[in-house]
Amino acid sequence: xxxxxxxxxxxxxxxxxxxxxxxxxxxxxxxxxxxxxxxxxxxxxxxxxxxxxxxxxxxxxxxxxxxxxxxxxxxxxxxxxxxxxxxxxxxxxxxxxxxxxxxxxxxxxxxxxxxxxxxxxxxxxxxxxxxxxxxxxxxxxxxxxxxxxxxxxxxxxxxxxxxxxxxxxxxxxxxxxxxxxxxxxxxxxxxxxxxxxxxxxxxxxxxxxxxxxxxxxxxxxxxxxxxxxxxxxxxxxxxxxxxxxxxxxxxxxxxxxxxx
Length: 260
Known about the structure:
260 residues, alpha/beta, seven-stranded mixed β-sheet, 9 helices, 23% strand, globular
């Protein structure tokens, strides 16, 4: 079974992730996360586990000068893409559980769809709290229910085995928002709250969706698309428009808390 610390993307996968996954899913939720955090001009913002940096870029477009945005991710390939796209943002390759930032440096720490992957989730959240100023805010987004993605996981399990399916299901392990809310409380955040919103993963076709899920993540080499696609084209048809475009409904939870 793949451990979270091994979930690293090579250069090709990171580029594929930015080109396909970000517009299909993450860009929409980045705006929602920044909204929920109430990011405002002049703030100092950290994007923790930033990937290719869509949250950091969204925040940077809102704060202006004299604000500042930094992003940190364990994947060097992700940071390379992020740095190429926005060299004006401060990028760091590193572990969110042990960050190279001074205590109290940031006004807000944002974390999109990554909490579920940390080996020690409370430790990572405690580190986010450390780098926040007193009264600073954390905003964390995790995935909720998605019957369409669960259906896809079943297709992958039939074709490629239980391990591949468990990897595919990993982003949804905190789908009960009470679990993530409890983690924030254990990490020392106060006045925690949550909101649940509905969204969708949108791709031009079922083939494009499955290719993104495999080639834009760690499933490359673990899933044979030639075996998965014929079944997926039939079972995922209810999520398709007449044009062939696919839209998979997905629920997201955004949790916030404050550093005392």
